[in-house]
Write a structure and sequence with these properties.
Elements (H helix, E strand, L loop, with lengths): L4 E4 L9 E9 L2 E9 L10 E7 L4 H14 L5 E7 L6 H10 L3 E12 L12 E4 H4 L1 H10 L7 H10 L1 H13 L8 E4 L5 E9 L5 E9 L8 H16 L3 E7 L3 H9 L10 E8 L1
Parallel strand pairs: 4-5, 10-11
Antiparallel strand pairs: 1-2, 2-3, 3-4, 5-12, 6-11, 6-12, 7-8, 8-9, 9-10
Helix pairs in contact: 4-6, 5-6
Length: about 280
């Protein structure tokens, strides 16, 4: 039986920041620590994230920290825990711990790495390319919303079903644009200038590294290779911005997107990034 100490976290200007910090200390050594963080980018009512860390042999202390964080959350709150092969140690133990305290798997995502090795990066073909500045915010929201039907990203599908496609698209756009990447957001259109998809490359939280913040093809225009043209735009952004590469991830059930990533030079074996999202409703 471990005693968990907790304290309000220092204030932060970040969108997602610690609210309460927890730790288990024995004889002056910290066996496990964690935080209950504020809601995700979706905003108020979107749930809370629990960050958890422990040293070797401290898994039971970690269990106590998670249970304390759950107890501190408001009734009805959706809580999230994550495991990532590139970030965390003891992945099987971590996953087993999450499941043993009542969390269930919400989504699993595979990471894909694209690097600029001086290869040919052809421009998109057979489409018209428009920037956000050219089409305007409201038009881009409409395009993003039109890409949401039958999405194979399970977390996105949950939120779209909960708050609606247009609200989700608007919130996604506003959150991503805080990073100042709007000059690299693109909409592609067909020969009649009808929008058929969008891609949003942006900076990753590592130096000289990018990510595909989001990508989608309008539901009525899938199956015509437009995703490949969008990925060509994303790939060329790596060189335009001087990044060494781009790390993006895809829901493991989204086999069409995985195939498109591989066709366009994004490799699952480029980095060990692989992520599990677990959730629990208090």
């Amino acid at each position: 039986m471990f005693t968990v100490t907790s304290a309000p976290a220092a204030t932060s200007d970040e969108a997602i920041h610690p609210l309460i910090e927890f730790s288990v200390d024995v004889n002056g050594d910290c066996l496990a620590s964690g935080e209950l963080l504020s809601g995700s980018w979706i905003g108020e009512g979107s749930g809370q994230i629990i960050a958890i860390r422990w040293d070797k042999g401290g898994i039971e202390a970690a269990r106590a920290v998670i249970e304390a964080a759950v107890d501190a959350a408001q009734p009805g709150t959706e809580l999230e825990l994550t495991a990532n092969t590139e970030v965390h140690d003891w992945i099987p133990e971590r996953v087993a711990l999450f499941e043993s305290v009542g969390f269930t798997l919400r989504q699993e995502k595979e990471g894909f790495w694209f690097s600029d090795d001086g290869q040919d990066m052809p421009p998109p073909e057979g489409v018209k390319v428009h920037t956000l500045a050219e089409i305007g915010r409201d038009a881009l929201v409409d395009v993003i919303a039109a890409c949401t039907p039958s999405t194979l990203d399970r977390v996105d599908a949950d939120w779209i079903a909960s708050i609606g496609a247009h609200r989700w698209a608007s919130t996604l756009l506003d959150d991503c644009l805080q990073s100042g990447d709007e000059h690299y957001w693109y909409v592609i259109a067909n020969a009649t200038d009808e929008p058929v998809g969008f891609v949003a490359p942006g900076a990753f939280d590592e130096p000289d590294t990018g990510t595909i913040q989001h990508i989608g093809v309008v539901a009525g225009h899938r199956g015509h290779g437009y995703v490949d043209q969008l990925l060509r735009l994303a790939n060329r952004t790596v060189r335009d911005r001087g990044w060494i590469g781009m790390l993006s991830d895809v829901d493991v059930t989204n086999t069409p997107m995985i195939a498109a990533m591989e066709r366009n030079g994004h490799r699952a074996d480029g980095r060990p990034w692989h992520k599990w999202y677990y959730r629990h409703v208090k």
